[in-house]
Amino acid sequence: MVDALAPGPITQIAWVVTDIAATEQFLTASFGVRKWARLPDVHFGPETCTYRGEPADFTAHIALSYHGEMQFELIQPVRGVSIYTEFLEHSGPGLHHICSEPADFDAAIRAAADRGIDIVQQGDMSGQMRFAYLDGAASGVPFLELAEIGPNMRTMFEQIKAQA
């Protein structure tokens, strides 16, 4: 039996898009999502984020909502080079990643490295969320995001879920 990197449930499905409003409308009509929380101009800086092993500096519009317990995330890159702009250049808009929250984030990152799985982008959002995108392209999966969610970010997610 192979030990899973992220044995917990999938908590998020995310799309990278070129028109966040149009994708919100489509997913609202498709799934009955009532409300999206729009987070414009979220900055990821070189002090806390890397892309392909180098400091990263980029900005993206983010929209979040829920369908039941599943978080939907839309990401529209607006400035800089990132895993998101790379995806748009190679694939166009579409399903980008699924996210899981391993019980031990650091152990999951080490396990990925031990298996030779590249971490394409990673970062820390003011101590409230750590994330790492694992490259799944060789297996036909764009990316798997591993996340560790802090209490303030969790509270924000719960508020968004209550309104969705």
UniProtKB/TrEMBL annotation:
SUPFAM superfamilies: Glyoxalase/Bleomycin resistance protein/Dihydroxybiphenyl dioxygenase. PROSITE patterns: VOC. Pfam families: Glyoxalase_4 (PF13669). Gene3D superfamilies: 2,3-Dihydroxybiphenyl 1,2-Dioxygenase, domain 1 (3.10.180.10). Residues 9-148 form the VOC domain. InterPro entries: Glyas_Bleomycin-R_OHBP_Dase (IPR029068), VOC_core (IPR037523). This is VOC family protein. It comes from Nocardia albiluteola.
